[in-house]
Amino acid sequence: MIKAIIIDDELKAQKNLFNLLKSYCPEVDVMAMENTIEEGVSAIQKFQPEVVFLDIEMDGETGFDLFESIEEVNFNVIFITAHDEYAIKAFKFNAMDYLLKPIDIDELQAAVNKIVQKKSSNELSTSKVDHLLNAINNQQNSFEKIVLPTLDSLLFINIKDIVRCEATDNYTNFHLIDGKVILVSKSIKHYEEILENKGFYRVHRSHLINIAYIKEFIKGDGGYLMLTDSSNIPVARRKRNGFLSQFEKE
Q1: pLDDT, tens digit, for every residue of 39-50?
Q2: Which superfamily does CATH assign the domain made up of 159-249 to?
Q3: What does pTM read for this prediction?
């Protein structure tokens, strides 16, 4: 049997999925059905499921918020959504899957069969988790969040809370509005490609800044920016014209 948990804030949707699994996927044993992310995290810790059926959009939350409270993603996830614009392409690969409401029986069985085939492994490989992060981040980011993989966890950060990113060799430091700094083992180039259409501009080889937090531009040899976090960020001479034109658009 495959231990499973359903997390969905709609009771009708919970019961419908439960009944479909019972009728068409008897190999799935639903251990719990929860309405909120907090309840879902508790159920995961208690039952240690092999698969979580996770609604993407819930009242005041998203399914992605679940990962902020999970130290290790050692279960499979099947996302559920009523809206096909929510980055569906990001989830259609062998580590993660999705179901579109109303749930199609054949698609449900196919998703469960993938879990059955992977049952010999009790946890997702690092490469598969990375695949998920890249897929989410490289979409248009419907939820206005970015996934930051740290040594201990996956952090789901509101993009609007990022003041700037600073390169340190092949690592990137994320400086947040609350003063917190998060070190991520990916290059600033990686995040430039993700954030460039979100109001960010790379003004220097080592600096990617959120235009919303610019306080003042000081002219000079290339010039530098004063940001609201009291940092002074140099603007590379070759970046100046491009930056000023971008800034004027905002």
Answers
A1: 999 999 999 999
A2: LytTr DNA-binding domain (2.40.50.1020)
A3: 0.52
